[in-house]
Amino acid sequence: MKSRLGAPEGDKVYTAGGDSDSEEDDRTSFKDQLQNFAAVSRYCCQHSVPAICSVLENRLFTLEQDLKEAMRYHATDLESQPRLLNIFEDIHWLLLLSGYTLTDDDSMDGQVIIRSEILSFSTAQSGSPTASLELLFHPDSATVAVDWIVRILAVVLRLSSLESRLASIGFSSLVSPQVSVSSLWFLRCFVRTFVGFRERDYDEFSPAFAVCFAADSPGSSYLVGFLLDKSLAVLSQVDSESDQLEAAVSLLRAVLSSKDRMSLACKHANFSRVPTIGHSVARRLGSDALRSLHSALASSSVCITDTTLQHHYWSALLSPVLERFHQLRSVQTHSESVSVVLSLDILCGLITGSRSTSAVFLFSSLQPILEYLVPMTIEYKSFPDVTLGVADVLIAVSNHILGYLGTEESNKVFSWSLAFLESYKLIDFDNVVFDYLDFQVSTMVSIMELLISILSKDFMDLSVQVIIGALDLAPKMSDSAAGEIAFYGLAIILPLLSQEMLQLPELSATYFRLLSLLCENYPEQVGQLEAAMLAGVMTSLDSGIRRFGPTEGKPCYEAITSLAFHCLEERVSHGPLYTNLGSILESILSCLFTDKFDVDLLSFAAEALFNLIIIHKETYCRLVEAFLATQTSNNYFDHIKDAFNNLTPSIADSSSVARVNKRAFVGKLQSFVAGLRGVIYTR
Known about the structure:
The chain is mainly alpha-helical and about 675 residues long. The protein is about 70% helix and about 0% strand. The protein has helices spanning about 25-30, 30-45, 45-70, 80-100, 115-125, 130-135, 150-170, 175-195, 205-215, 220-235, 240-255, 260-265, 275-280, 285-300, 305-325, 335-350, 360-370, 375-380, 385-400, 405-425, 435-460, 480-495, 500, 505-520, 525, 530-545, 550-570, 575-590, 600-615, 615-630, 635-645, 650-655, 660-680. Helix 20 (about 405-425) runs parallel beside helix 22, helix 26 (about 530-545) packs across helix 27 (about 550-570) and helix 29 crosses helix 33 (about 660-680).
């Protein structure tokens, strides 16, 4: 604390103009230090919490006095007030220190467990429930006999109210954006941890906690309303900076993420503004924040128990979205494309926020928009953000809604996905003015993510009815529309892939994950691919195990294992797939004896090698004999020969794929590699 605070409690020396601009994201830059501080601070709560609270109260009192002085002289520029800047800097750090001490991981969503040290400390205080609740309602009241946790929260509520008052009288320029973001962050962490906690989840808690923070308590009801108003006010304030808007979105998400808090929010006077707030701030939010906000608005709807209120909520939430798309025209201008991208971000957020009870309803409500996505892609083909936005929407539908749809609705999603793939083929890149390579890579990643998402329907169908029909895209391949679309998409992207593109981590990881899913779920169809396409797939897998690390290598080995097991199970002993797997066997063996082989992949390589050796006994024996023929030293020759004999005696003489045999082979391969690679490297 001393190193982060100025005098009199700290020894930090401020430079002219303060330090607020030099550390823009202290929660990230100093995360390890803050976590270490919190661990020690919770260990001695009886000392640390009162110390933090007392300094925070003093700093806020000083801030209030200095602000009055500044307003009396009509100061409008915070940068010209070095004393205010230094006070704000201290408050910023006190908010971080107190937030990390009282709450846990700030990156999670949903309710967070209250730390046992905090509960024990609060119980030991014997704070007055009445006095604590009074301070919560009136943060300027006396603090005698009040729980220290409530006192810290009351200081932050006072700070938050002070910022709102300054904004209302035209002095928002005297508010530190950094402190505003930090206070919103503290309130978000606090509400997720404390507000609306369920008493049955804890063995002990103080009476002050019960009356101030428990579910359905008067304190929780007040706090939910206060925080709802605060987040809506920041979002509505026209001069709010982007960081403040994003922090307000996170706070609103936290308030609405709990069923108990949502039930309290529904009773608040300003709740009617909640479903429409996204429409009013859409142009001031970044893409991620806009999606996050609408995801929270959609997901919170399931917490509304009143049917009539839920109907009005959905109507207020969806009507502006439907109207947005209704007004869109195929005027290919930059300004129009910006509106399209905003609308797609909103749509993507709503779909991401769907839940099991709302997925079918949301799909039905948004179907007129979803049907327009592919024509929109063609109309705005000169704008890559539109194409990528449409892909994100289809990915969201596949990830969050498709599993709950029946046959007819699922086939609509499949047909839209197929049409999107077709529209990608029709884009005339010669007439598009943007970085073609970046767009191609981004779109290919999105297409592969879409294919991966729709594949989930085949092995995770949560709908009332199971798909029994399918699109007639490639009858020779499969009865599954999802699988057919995936292979169709693979045929589009495979010729466009180059070794240079595969060096991009995100693209290569997504591509190999797609191959792994296809080989695992449709090994027979992989074997029936036309020669050029099958060669491309097998070349990719070979490259994946030779040239890439664990992230890409793991799915490649899993794909090879699935294909080899298919050949073993179906007794495949000829054909292009069988032949290609023989070459893969040679590649794996050569990889094992190179210093670039990552031992973290050994277990995955062992499973693939186990199946390959069984189906390619002759090839394996030939490769071993060829390798032994290169050994000129009798001592090394005998050692290497014995190692191979110990590795595969049972595999060479049988076709058993029992788990016990495979597990034994994995252990033997570990010993084999550890012993033999050392000999080869030495030579």
